[in-house]
Amino acid sequence: MQNITFAKVMIVLCLIGSGALAWLDWNQYKQIQETRAKLIPNGEIETKVRMTQAIGREYKAMQEALSNDDLSGEKQPRSYIVEIADLPLVAIGAVSIDENSRASGGAATTDKIYTIHPSDKNRKYDKMNIANFVYTLEEKSPRIRVTKIVMDQFNNDLPTPRTTVKPTEYPLGRFTFSAVATSRERTDG
Question: CB–CB of 84/144 below 8 Å?
Answer without folding.
Answer: no
